[in-house]
Amino acid sequence: MMGKIQRNELLSLEAYYKARPDMRQRAIAERKKRTVILGEHLNLIFENKFLMQYQIQEMLRVEKIFEDESIQEEMETYNALVPDGSNFKVTMKLEYTNEVDRKVALAKLIGIEHRVFIEVEGQPRVYAIANEDLDRSTAEKTSSVHFLRFELTDAMKKALEVGAQLKVGCDHKEYPSHVESLPAETLASLVEDLN
């Protein structure tokens, strides 16, 4: 299942219609398992190949896309969020139900995407490389969605593979929050990204 999504791994619209209920259930479970919640408003979804394949299938279904060129564009977009074996790729969401609260928070949280980190037990902290496709913040506010990449050294990968814990957090002055250790199921799923 590793590597980027290939064209022959995608289902036709007809085949996806039949497979969708099962894929959807699996995607919901996978996303839940791979989501790390920091505080009340910050969610980090650690993406993987299956979740991105599901996103592509959903886009093709919703947009009724069946032309090869358009399918290739969707693949390029979502393949950018598939881990490469030495990193984690994350969709970061700042979620506020009240629109006024959201506007105030996004103005206070400028730069938060650069203050999100992972820390493998016994290894140095790694900060996210954010929004490599385009900048999502302005001088007035940050975006509610960011795309992050965390690069791991071989020593970090080896430590995780033999059972080291992974701390995930944010040290932005307006939103200090962290999770000291991840549930075993979550950590095991993330370690799969490093093979």
Automatic annotation (TrEMBL):
<protein>
    <submittedName>
        <fullName>DUF3501 family protein</fullName>
    </submittedName>
</protein>
<dbReference type="InterPro" id="IPR021890">
    <property type="entry name" value="DUF3501"/>
</dbReference>
<dbReference type="Pfam" id="PF12007">
    <property type="entry name" value="DUF3501"/>
</dbReference>
